[in-house]
Amino acid sequence: MKPEKILTIGIDIDGTVTSPSSIVPLMNESFGKDLRYEDCYEYNLANVYKITDEEFDKWLDLHGERLYDEAPVHGNADHILRTWHPQFKLVYISAREARHRDVTINWFSRYNIPFHNIDLVGSHDKLSAAKKWGVDLFLEDRLENALQLSEALQIPVFLFDTPYNQSELPPLVHRVTSWDEVQEKVQLLSLERTSV
Question: Is the pTM of this model over 0.90?
Answer without folding.
Answer: yes
